[in-house]
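Course assignment 3, question 2. Fill in each field.
Student: A.L.
Task: Predict the tertiary structure for the chain below.
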Amino acid sequence: MLKVLHQGGRWAFLRVESLFNLAFGDRLNPLYYLGPISYFLFWIVLGSGLYLYAFFETSVDGAYASVERLTHAQWYFGGVLRSLHRYASDGMVLTMLLHLVRHFVFDRYRAFRWFSWVSGVVLLWLIYAAGINGYMLPWDRLAQFVVIATAEWFDWIPIFGGTLVRNFIFPENVNDRLFSLLSFIHIGIPLAALALLWVHTQRVPQARTAPPWPIALTLSGALVALSLFKPALSQAPADLGSAVTVIGFDWFYLPVYALLYRWTPGEVWALVGGLTLLLVLAPWLPPKRRRAPAAGFHLLVRPDNRIISVREGESLLDAGLREGIRFPFECRNGGCGKCKAQLTYGEVDPGVYQPNALSPEERAAGKVLLCCATAVADLEIEYEPTEPVGGRPARRYTARVSAMNRLGRDVMQVFLALPPGEKLDYYAGQYLNVILPDGDRRSFSFATAPHVQGEIELQIRLVPGGKFTPWVFEHMKVGDTVEFEGPLGSFFLREDSSKPVIFVAGSTGFAPVKSMVEHALHVGLKRSMILYWGVRRPEDLYLAELPRQWEREHANFKFVPVISDPLPEDGWTGRTGLVHEAILADFPDLAGHQIYACGSVGMVAAAHPAFLARGLSQDDCFSDAFLLSAKKPDATAEVMRLGGGR
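Answer field:
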């Protein structure tokens, strides 16, 4: 039943929106800006209400007369503002209801969106309460009807026990304190709604709180024209000595009141309470099985070269905006096509959108609309930026050297401790930049898995004549401070696949592989994993016992060390030669595998085409190469890791 409602509602919205696109264009379709229009109408209601309140008299005798004076003596301004206040309030209810229904039929109210949905439901009821309360203030026949009907309705609640309506049996029972109370409520509820509206909006990354100015001007002009053509007027003055039989009715705010004289108050409470409870519980009805990993899917964004997480059901656009990526976008509803991007790896649910925004040919070529597409696997996308890329810059940290271990003749294990309470989130395989005193940078992979908090492990290889690593080996000591920025890079483990994994590490390329393997074992990945670690001499396998321990403790992990230049005195009896050649010898067909290679440029450059020639898919080959420093490459330049780069 729910699926039918969603499909039918989406069909209806898409058809109506396509008609509106013909009339207004896909960039100025008001149905794409229901939230911002509601915000805009709220400000009109608030501003006009403040002016009206300045002339309103909070007394039994003065309420009706003050509203009449404002309406007729100031018809050119006060009267127009009164009408504007009324029609903007009705319009706000309409746009808020459409906004809520649209999110429901497009299934954008579950999982992490539950707070926005529930706060939106509460916000809608606050707006209703403020509007109903506003109809009590002019003290005309409609105000009399609303006040008495409200009292009778609330009297059904046992705590009141029929006492409220007694205050309106005789005219002398109504005094000025009632209007002071009503005015206080009419100010307090909108202020509460404004606070909740701010909270509601903060849950949406880069939420728009104002429609495009052509829509705002057109809407304002239409409301002013309606106010002049059909001004809002008071009905006859309230008279508690006679019953209200005929009134002009506002069906936007008062439909429930029409039921109060057809149903019992208890039945109306059951309807309102049941509907409210159903709306509040809607994000969990029926329970939906989680398909995504607990941490969400991974999204690699190019050209920013950043990895971000995508929650289940979250659009790629929202995920990017949440992380500060400057995706181009406009309507956010699949109508304009401005957020189009190329899917280069992974799989998405493309969502529903207008056919003119994304053609079948574009979809077949791998194009997606970021505002509609949701992840069903780890992804890689590429978009065309309209402003400088980068988004949120890498954060700077100052850490203390907490431990140092000499792992071999030219490898130092360095542990960095962050200040207490500070946390660094990163993906297994990423790296950081150590910032030198002159501003130059040197890059090193995280060797610790992301779940290990407290210390960051780096494996630093000595580069003779280098600018930083000789200092590490000769002068660095425990207690020194190190400034770095991170996390950086786009080399990370895709966890959504079931394909066997082959890790290829050259020398200290073991560092990011160590992070990825420990992460995979920690999260319980059952995929087959083989590590080929290639070095020149057996002594260069500086942590060989660690992968051997993984092999002993985990049936799905295997370790194959490969020595390229063993000497007779080494007594090496294992695999020899180039590390990628060992893989080619073991795997005549690499189709159906994933390979993660990290090492020198030469190793990666030699391995990549050889792997593809053996049937490995381009989408399943991930590499991270050691390159010379990007600043001034020369013979003595330090090695520098660049994340990603297939």
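Instructor remarks: The domain at 33-284 is CATH 1.20.810.10 (Cytochrome Bc1 Complex; Chain C). The radius of gyration is 33 Å.
Grade: pending
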